[in-house]
Design goal:
It is built from 5 helices and 8 strands, in the order H-H-E-H-E-E-E-H-E-H-E-E-E. It is an alpha/beta fold. Strand 4, helix 4 and strand 5 form a beta-alpha-beta unit.
Amino acid sequence: MSSTNRGSSYKDKTITDYYVTPISEILKFFAAVVEEESDIFSGSVVDPAAGGDPAHPASYPEALSEIGIPESMVSTIDIREDSRAAIKGKSYLEMELAEKPNLIITNPPFIIAQEFIEKALKDVRDGGYVVMLLRLNFFGSSRRKKLWEKSMPKYVFVHHQRMSFTDDSATDSVEYMHAVWKKGENPKSSKLFVI
């Protein structure tokens, strides 16, 4: 995700709006979240917008591999045909998962991020986790107020440096967070960390 128009390929599959999530930032998040939820990586994982391309690995699966999560525990989906995902050319929003994973984690297309969150919360097992990389200003919307009332994240990990989603290390004007939901828990407020 970057502050440009992500998600358009879900409406028009001929448009590519792929942005590479920096693995170094994912690893910073992993180190922080495991201190709060030690079992977050203890079961199967699904990345429903896995990305990857001929020049880049799929970011979350690569980061999971770097912390010792076996590839056999991670399922990957992406709507793009040139993705490195195991399931390509299919929309997660139109799929039924074969089983409920312990963790669904991704960088969702921004314009349909809410739909990804809502579906992931249905798809993950009870007590499981949903993690989405989102703009920090994702909280500020009247459209999403009902989402926050019924499904407030348990944790918000704000990245203190702006991320670069491009090979030239340029950043955009947006701060990002990893929002973490634990299915079955609906706190009134999120616990905030700056990483």
